[in-house]
Write a structure and sequence with these properties.
Oligomer: single chain
CATH topology of the domain at 4-51 and 109-178 and 273-372: FAD/NAD(P)-binding domain
Shape: globular
CATH architecture of the domain at 4-51 and 109-178 and 273-372: 3-Layer(bba) Sandwich
Bound molecules: flavin-adenine dinucleotide
Distance between the termini: 29 Å
Number of helices: 10
Strand order of the largest sheet: 6-5-14-15-16-13-17-20
Structural class: alpha+beta
């Protein structure tokens, strides 16, 4: 019996990339969606990210690719520079959303968040901040969700989109490994140099670095530090330490180093991955995005997986007679692609650690080809 169509109500936990896109896609299909976000209403501060072709394609299905490109910086090339500072080739990226539109876009996280948040609310989703989930019980064809303010919702669907350290995952009794890979990644917001109209990637003797445009005025520097302990540095030491690491790179990186000196925003994060060992759902509760499968950032594809999850979840729920069947179909469509991406990103992190960068490139290529296939 089609029980849930009468009560198409959902609680989505987490107003990040996965949560907001799932909320939008579900609300457009007629679901009443409430999003519980632990953080404050202000868009998250911080660095930028790269929306690859599959990210833009999924955003385009939500009608948001152009808004993201307008808020960010559309681009279609990756320029590789070797350890001597010499050009080592330019890769033209496939344009998955049409020849007249860019292959990918750099965007500041707050800007992406504003676009996704505005669309979720425009579609009728209610986003509440400073709220998390305290308990989950299965209640026949419904799921009973107790929120941190003591209120209770009985809904047809619970979506855990609460990131790599997902609380919902634990409350649903789903098991995931959370692994550190001996690397720390750096990001620093800097003014965009005029020559940076695509991604630039610089090979170093020990580490890799690069530059991604985020807007006409802004770009971010990235660096992956190999063979390090997982540790925190005092805020005041971040910019000087990043400048020191960039000293090992010749050529244009000298200019980037001088920009980092003036950066107000430098972050350093451990490379962590998460992957569910078995089921993604229990009863009418499911986890999506980084809560289910967080790849290492080297593939720049975590956002693509998160957005695709939201879209495919809504589609499969619309096609099936019960939430249970919809969730099974959703996981059936997503599990292999997401596992392959996480496992490949882990292999790439390992090869980088072993300074076998040349072996990492074909792996990354094959994974980008997989991601270019429809979700
Ligand atoms: C340094 C770095 C660089 C990256 N660069 C890229 C890139 O260039 N391109 C790319 O595609 N991907 C990149 N990624 C990966 C990408 O950021 C993630 O895959 C993506 O953000 C996952 O989205 P999500 O919504 O699943 O999780 P998140 O973005 O982590 O959002 C989770 C949300 O849930 C909220 N939350 C957490 N716990 C709770 C709770 N208990 N209750 C309520 N709310 C909660 C959080 O506040 C947050 O708003 C990068 C990751 C890192 C670490």
């Amino acid at each position: 019996m089609d029980r849930y169509r009468g009560v198409r109500t959902a609680v989505v936990v987490g107003a990040g990339i996965a949560g907001l896109t799932a909320a939008t896609a579900l609300a457009r299909d007629g679901w009443q969606v409430e999003v519980a976000e632990a953080g404050p209403p202000e868009a998250p501060a911080g660095w930028g990210l790269c929306l690859t072709g599959p990210s833009l394609r999924a955003l385009d299905e939500l009608g948001l690719a152009d808004a993201c490109t307008a808020e960010g910086y559309g681009m279609s090339t990756i320029t590789h520079v070797d350890v001597h500072g010499e050009p080592a080739g330019e890769v033209q990226l496939p344009r998955l959303i049409g020849a007249r539109r860019p292959a990918m876009a750099g965007i500041a996280r707050p800007a992406l968040h504003r676009v996704l948040h505005a669309e979720a609310e425009r579609c009728g989703a209610v986003v509440r901040h400073g709220l998390t989930v305290a308990a989950v019980d299965h209640d026949g064809a419904l799921v009973r969700v107790r929120l941190s303010d003591g209120t209770v919702r009985r809904v047809a669907l619970l979506v855990g989109a609460d990131g790599i350290r997902s609380a919902v995952r634990g409350l649903l009794g789903l098991e995931a490994s959370l692994d550190f890979h001996g690397q720390m990644v750096w990001r620093a917001l800097v003014p965009r140099p005029r020559w940076a109209t695509g991604i630039h990637q610089f090979a170093g003797k020990a580490d890799t670095a690069g530059l991604v445009p985020l807007s006409d005025r802004q770009a971010y520097v990235f660096l992956t530090e190999n063979g390090v302990e997982r540790s925190a540095l005092p805020e005041a030491e971040l910019a000087p330490r990043l400048r020191q690491l960039l000293e090992a790179f010749p050529g244009r990186v000298e200019e980037i180093r001088s920009l980092v000196a003036a950066s107000a925003s430098v972050v350093r994060r451990p490379v962590l991955t998460a992957l569910l060992g078995g089921a993604w759902h229990r009863g009418n509760g499911v986890v999506i995005g980084d809560a289910a499968h967080a790849p290492a950032p080297q593939m720049a594809s975590g956002a693509a997986l998160a957005i695709e999850d939201g879209l495919v979840l809504a589609r499969e729920l619309a096609r099936h007679e019960s939430v249970e069947l919809g969730l099974q179909a959703f996981v059936g469509r997503r599990a292999r692609r997401c596992r392959t991406l996480v496992e490949t990103s882990v292999a790439i992190a390992g090869l980088e650690q072993a300074r076998r960068h040349h072996e990492a490139y074909p792996l990354a290529d094959s994974c980008h080809r997989l991601m270019a296939e429809p979700a």
